[in-house]
Write a structure and sequence with these properties.
There is one protein chain. Helices cover 42% and strands 22% of the residues. With 92 residues, the chain is of the alpha/beta class.
Length: 92
């Protein structure tokens, strides 16, 4: 199963924690997980050192890609993101 998680800067800490736990659960069962950071969401996560370490470690657990789609330092364009989403079995 391919899963895509969209992370936005306005998400609450509780929502981010729940998303993180769901990511870990999917990775535990060897699902392909892609994480799309929108706007300044990674900056918001990085403000909390403990939380930042957990999110950075996700690639060690097998996250397929950290995708930055914030308008400035994108590593994917709109078409590429659309293609990735079409191939996903689960989008959060």
């Amino acid at each position: 199963m391919r899963a895509i998680f969209h992370i936005y800067p306005q998400q609450s800490q509780q929502c981010l924690q729940q998303t993180y736990l769901l990511l870990l659960a999917l990775l535990n069962f060897d699902h392909k997980v892609f994480i799309v950071f929108h706007q300044n969401s990674l900056t918001e996560i990085s403000k909390n050192t403990e939380q930042a370490k957990k999110w950075q470690a996700l690639n060690l657990y097998g996250a397929q890609a950290f995708i930055y789609y914030d308008g400035d330092n994108d590593n994917i364009d709109a078409y590429g993101l659309q293609q990735l989403m079409r191939q996903a079995d689960f989008i959060a």
